[in-house]
């Protein structure tokens, strides 16, 4: 079995994360370990033969063998996400191929240096894979996550992230709400900017590897600030963009 | 996989594009999504240059001013990104690769091209795919200077291949006798990237080559 042949996975779990995001866990007949940050392509086939493909980042760590989890955001008018949200239940089969991608990846090694993760919305998914991989590997490299969301109810993995931050003094969780913040919130209530990125860098003992994932506007702005104003080498800045058309 | 499998209750929701054919596995978008591996290089046209070198008889280098003075054409092309979106009828203005290659005169050994970009990106293509009106250096998109996040000030555009071959922030084309992988190709993407054959990944090349030899 070639890594990129199509295979039929069986949905073993569907977990609502937020009003607009669900995690689908698939058991795969030909599972193989992925690198944190990689994705799979999912293909839906209609009875008349019509097919639609979309790429989805892997949320589960490679340590979770035999399965892959994808956290998928419901896109308005989304042909694929709409079907997954309405129609797919445990026991159903979905056709996938992967893992794919070799640049936006991070490996937990004992030598791993500091890590700066910047997420916007569902851009958290591949970064969560890195965080889970880091946690399951028992690697304690200093790591900061700056996670921008519109409202409190849209924070994906909220509890797990808070638990992770409490359990690990070298993991720094910084949420930034761009529209509505929780009552009594004293943290960031604005879009990601230079001051925020500067503060995140200040939590880390030395220049980090950076992984930035989210909508184009956030990724462009964060990557450019890190490269231009904050003088990080371009080779340390990895970006992945979720365009508005990725449905 | 033999496709007797289908997803119960799934049906086409996006209307089929009219007057255009989508390559396999693609869907139509009206946006122009941005995908790049790192930060967008900020390029000052005063410092910009574009060169053609390697296996050519007369290596060329143009400044921004010189390049803009070359004969330009309008191109209306469909583009296909490996991340599954296609965009029909994009309008560009730029310089045909035929014009540039004629100036440099490739030697008879030249068969492949490595595109080198500001910011360090590279991608490889066969020389034949840049000739015969099939490729250009785009300077204007939709009548306006090409935005930096889309590859401005100048981008290689090779619309008949997946769009990662259309290198943003183009700086130099190096003509070579042998094919060598560029940035995404080293990360497992196809050496050629024909959307009509769905050559997305290196494994697709091997799979298709094995099929051809059967």
UniProtKB/TrEMBL annotation, chain A:
- Which organism's genome codes for this protein? Hymenobacter wooponensis
Q: Name one GO molecular function term.
A: oxidoreductase activity
Which InterPro entries did the record assign?
Cbr1-like_FAD-bd_dom, FAD-bd_FR_type, Flavoprot_Pyr_Nucl_cyt_Rdtase, FNR_nucleotide-bd, MRET, OxRdtase_FAD/NAD-bd, Riboflavin_synthase-like_b-brl
Name of this protein: Oxidoreductase
**Ranges for domain FAD-binding FR-type:** 4-106
Pfam families xrefs: FAD_binding_6, NAD_binding_1
Highest taxon, organism lineage? Bacteria
UniProtKB/TrEMBL annotation, chain B:
Q: Where is the Oxidoreductase molybdopterin-binding domain?
A: 38-184
What is the superkingdom listed in this entry's lineage? Bacteria
Q: A Pfam family for this UniProt protein? A: Oxidored_molyb
Q: Give the span(s) annotated as Disordered.
A: 1-25
Concerning InterPro entries, the annotation shows: OxRdtase_Mopterin-bd_dom (IPR000572), OxRdtase_Mopterin-bd_sf (IPR036374)
Q: What is this protein called?
A: Sulfite oxidase-like oxidoreductase
> What organism is recorded for this protein?
Hymenobacter wooponensis
Q: What is the organism lineage in this UniProt record?
A: Bacteria, Pseudomonadati, Bacteroidota, Cytophagia, Cytophagales
